[in-house]
C-alpha cells in the first residue's frame, strides 16, 4: 500500500481483493472511462434513454444522460476549452497549500516538523504565498513565528463531511484523511498551484514550476497499486484533476486507497498527455519497506535530487519535537531536516536524474486500459 491505513495494513481488505481481480479491474476501469467520457463528449439526440453503469461502494449504480450533461458542462468550465498548447503560464499567484481539519481532541498545535515542511516550501519551492486551509487556525509557537514573518496565511474552510450524494443521501467520508484529500483537490481546482501534506519536505521544489509549464497536472507515484495524494500540483483547468475530484462524488469507496491512489493511477493513464507522474517523492522512502533506512540509517536513501520527500513522519516513530532532537547520530531523516532548518544551499543537481514515471509501463492497469 502506498499510504498506510491506520486500520488495515495488509492487502486483505475486500475492496483490495476485488480490485486485484481482472474482471473487477475491467469493470472499474470501464467505470472510470465513463467519467472521462462525460468530461469530453456531448450526449446526442435520444440521450435521455441512455444509461451507463458505474461502481460505487462495490455496487452497480446507474448514471443517466442528464448526469453526463452535467459532467460535460462542469468539465468544460473547469478545463477551459480552447487553451493553447504548452508552454503554459504557471498559475498566478502561485500558491503552496496545506489542508488540516481540527481532530477529535481539538489540538491544532503546529509541530516542529510541520514548521520545517512550510520552511522547505519557502526556501526550495519559492511560491508567491502559502495558504493553510481548515476549520480551525493552527496554534503554537511555530505557527506564530510563521505569521510574524508573513510566510503563511490561514484560510477558513468547512470540513468536508460527504463525498457527494446518491438519491439525496450524503455519502459520508470514511476517514478524516479522506475529508482532507477531497479538500486538497477542491483547493487546486479553485486556486491552482501545489498542495502538500505536512510531512512533505521540498528539495528541488522549483522543478514543479518547470513541469507545470509543460503539463496540466502532477501526481506522485506511490507503488504498484497506485499513486499518492501527499503532493499534487495542477492548473485549475486540468481535466485529470476535475475527473479525479468527480470520482469521489460518483464512485467513492470507503477504502483507504481506492480514490486517492487507484483512481489517480487509472486517470493518469487516460489523461497521460496532461499528467506528469512524479517519482522519488512519495516512495523514497517507501512505507512498505524502507522507512528504517530513512529514519534510522544514513546514506541509503538518496534525496538530494528529488522534487520533495514524503517522509511518513507518524509511521517512522522518531520524534523530532524541537531543534535539539536533530542533534546526535546523523540519519537521513535528520540530514534532510537539518538542511531545511539551517537553510543550506543544495549542491548542483544531477543532470542525469530522471523522475517521470510512464503510467503505461505499469501493470496491470495499463495493459487493461490499452487492450
UniProtKB/TrEMBL annotation:
Q: Membrane-crossing residues?
A: 24-44
Record bears the keyword Transmembrane helix: yes
The UniProt keywords, alphabetically, are: Membrane, Transmembrane, Transmembrane helix
Q: What is this protein called?
A: Uncharacterized protein
Protein's organism = Hypsibius exemplaris (Freshwater tardigrade)
Amino acid at each position: 500500500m502506498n499510504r498506510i491505513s491506520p486500520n488495515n495494513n495488509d492487502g486483505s481488505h475486500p475492496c483490495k481483493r476485488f480490485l486485484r481481480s481482472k474482471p473487477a479491474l475491467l469493470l472499474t476501469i470501464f467505470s472510470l472511462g465513463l467519467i472521462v467520457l462525460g468530461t469530453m463528449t456531448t450526449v446526442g439526440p435520444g440521450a435521455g434513454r441512455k444509461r451507463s453503469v458505474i461502481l460505487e461502494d462495490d455496487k452497480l449504480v446507474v448514471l443517466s444522460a442528464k448526469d453526463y450533461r452535467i459532467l460535460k458542462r462542469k468539465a468544460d468550465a473547469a478545463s477551459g476549452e480552447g487553451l493553447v498548447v504548452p508552454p503554459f503560464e504557471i498559475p498566478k499567484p502561485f500558491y503552496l497549500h496545506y489542508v488540516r481539519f481540527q481532530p477529535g481532541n481539538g489540538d491544532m498545535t503546529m509541530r516542529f516538523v510541520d514548521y520545517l515542511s512550510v520552511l522547505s516550501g519557502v526556501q526550495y519551492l519559492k511560491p508567491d504565498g502559502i495558504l493553510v486551509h481548515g476549520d480551525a487556525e493552527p496554534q503554537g509557537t511555530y505557527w506564530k513565528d510563521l505569521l510574524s514573518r508573513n510566510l503563511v496565511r490561514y484560510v477558513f474552510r468547512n470540513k468536508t463531511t460527504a463525498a457527494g450524494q446518491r438519491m439525496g443521501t450524503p455519502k459520508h467520508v470514511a476517514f478524516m484523511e479522506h475529508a482532507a484529500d477531497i479538500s486538497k483537490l477542491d483547493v487546486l481546482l479553485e486556486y491552482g498551484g501545489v498542495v502538500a501534506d505536512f510531512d512533505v519536505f521540498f528539495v528541488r521544489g522549483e522543478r514543479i514550476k518547470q513541469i507545470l509549464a509543460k503539463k496540466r497536472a502532477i501526481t506522485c507515484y506511490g507503488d504498484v497499486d497506485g499513486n499518492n495524494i501527499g503532493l499534487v500540483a495542477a492548473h485549475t483547468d486540468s481535466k485529470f484533476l476535475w475527473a479525479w475530484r468527480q470520482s469521489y462524488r460518483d464512485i467513492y469507496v470507503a477504502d483507504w486507497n481506492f480514490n486517492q491512489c487507484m483512481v489517480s493511477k487509472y486517470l493518469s493513464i487516460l489523461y497521460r498527455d496532461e499528467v506528469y507522474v512524479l517519482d522519488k517523492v512519495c516512495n523514497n522512502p517507501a512505507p512498505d519497506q524502507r522507512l528504517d533506512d530513512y529514519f534510522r540509517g544514513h546514506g541509503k536513501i538518496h534525496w538530494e535530487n528529488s522534487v520533495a520527500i514524503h517522509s511518513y513522519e507518524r509511521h517512522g516513530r522518531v520524534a523530532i519535537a524541537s531543534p535539539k532532537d536533530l542533534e546526535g547520530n546523523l540519519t537521513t531523516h535528520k540530514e534532510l531536516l537539518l538542511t531545511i532548518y539551517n537553510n543550506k544551499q543544495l549542491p548542483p543537481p544531477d543532470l542525469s536524474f530522471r523522475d517521470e514515471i510512464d503510467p503505461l509501463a505499469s501493470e496491470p492497469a495499463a495493459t487493461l486500459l490499452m487492450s
